[in-house]
Automatic annotation (TrEMBL), chain B:
Pfam families membership: ABC_tran
The entry's keywords: ATP-binding, Cell cycle, Cell division, Cell membrane, Membrane, Nucleotide-binding, Transport
PANTHER family with a match to the protein in the record: CELL DIVISION ATP-BINDING PROTEIN FTSE, IMPORT ATP-BINDING PROTEIN
Family: Belongs to the ABC transporter superfamily.
Name the record gives this protein: Cell division ATP-binding protein FtsE
InterPro entries, alphabetized: AAA+_ATPase, ABC_transporter-like_ATP-bd, ABC_transporter-like_CS, ABC_transpr_LolD-like, Cell_div_FtsE, MacB-like_ATP-bd, P-loop_NTPase
GO terms classed as biological process: cell division
Membrane topology category: Peripheral membrane protein
Gene Ontology MF terms in the entry: ATP binding; ATP hydrolysis activity; transmembrane transporter activity
Any coiled-coil regions, as ranges: none
UniProt source species: Methylosinus sporium
Record carries keyword Membrane: yes
Amino acid sequence: MSSNDAKSRAALRRLSPAASPAPSDATLEETLGRETPLVPTSSIAGRSLVIVIAIMTFLASLSAGAALMVADASVDWRREVAREASVQIRSAPDRDIEADVNRATSVLVAAEGVRDVRVYTKAESEALLAPWLGQGLDFAELPAPRMIVVKLDENRRADLDALRRELAQAIPTAALDDHRLWVERLGQMARTVVAVAALVFVLIVVAMGLAVAFATRAAMVGNREIIEVLHLVGAADKYIAQQFQRRFLALGLRGGFIGGASAMAFFLFSGYLASRWTATPDGDQLEAMFGSFSLGPLGFTVVGCISAAAGLLTGFMSQEIVFRQLRRLDGAE
Amino acid sequence: MLSFENVGLRYGSGSEILSDLAFSITPRSFQFLTGPSGAGKTTLLKLVLMSLKPTRGRISLFGKDTQTLDKDSVTDIRRRIGVVFQDFRLLEHLNLYENVALPLRVIGREETSYRAEVLELLRWVGLDERIASRPSVLSGGEKQRAAIARALIVRPELLLADEPTGNLDPTLARRLLRLFVELHKSGTSVVIATHDLALMEQYESARRLVLADGRLHVFE
């Protein structure tokens, strides 16, 4: 230290009315080594923002999870349906239906790509009509069709068009249904559900971004004097923006964690409930729609990523908004 | 170090509140900036600090035209200037130690690297027993000393003090002036904005920059 420095500091010392004793170790311990955030915690509507982010993360996770479950279930539906075809042999006055069934079975067994052929017995075929025609009906007088279920080999694709033609030549009353219509409808429905979920997800993210933007702007207005002082003591815009980002990142991560954890708990609980209901009609419908109604490791990873992204998005957005606002303030000066 | 050339300032489409300001401040100089209340002393200091832009004229700081500076250069220049605000502008949510250390903290220095420096300065201004106190519990004099310590912690080349004795009794005001004189002798250029004639009379040899009716008159 130069002698001039010493002189000026001696003058500073003289400003003090009386010499003061050294600070106690306890005071030093409490005060030093910690850095109070430059953006005061109380100046941000922290709790409200955490709740908003938690709710948004929860909803975003729900929509993403539901989309994933439907997409997975749709793959299962389509795979299951595509593995199977059915042949219906209609009854005709001039034909022996049993002979037609046997002939059709022979054609099917000989066809390329057919793994298994199961002929529904007369009783089984009639049982299939029971839901429409009622129980206890005498089918002897009715021209009830017969059903043959064909299991297709996944590894060797069957030429269903050729098989259809071959069957039609051998048995005019035979009709091969490859369930293509169902597959297309299921696929379309699944795509619609996933698209709607994606739209909901995007809307939620936009709403969350707007909430963060409002909160950041409000925090900047509330801390305008602090920002001005920081500027005047030599803080760069980047440094100031980082102070806001740090506060908002912490809030965003907290909200994201709460929302994500709640969503995971929701999916786990729902999976548990669904497993308890599997034997009931409601449970069957749920399973038809969402498969096993369990999210799976990929789903939980996605929810975890959404939680982290909510925090990071909050921090990034607040920093960008502060940067932009500081530039605007500078332009206004 | 600092020069104003035909600087004028107006707000919006009103008339100029500062007109044709032309003066310079050389290194190691000492000056009072004076004039009646409302003459524009604080506004002039804001122009120096680049928190206001002149509507005409040229301000040069440390050899650079302030109109052409980018934000990083503005920040670099502000780090060479210490400011004591009329209303202290201590941050209420920080304790005294953190307030004084603020200019070092914002340039990214680690707390451990400046701890001894800040404690030493606080001891010198007699506030070492109040390091954990918030500004709200400090007296006007203590706040004043804390504001001065904050301005000095970066060892500025130019010190601007806006009505630094406004809240002090005459004895403390005299002590404060002695401090500024010592700082000036140690190589810092000092500009004290005040309308306290008694204060100025204690240092007759200082330059006087007198603002009146929006114009500046320099008395060497």
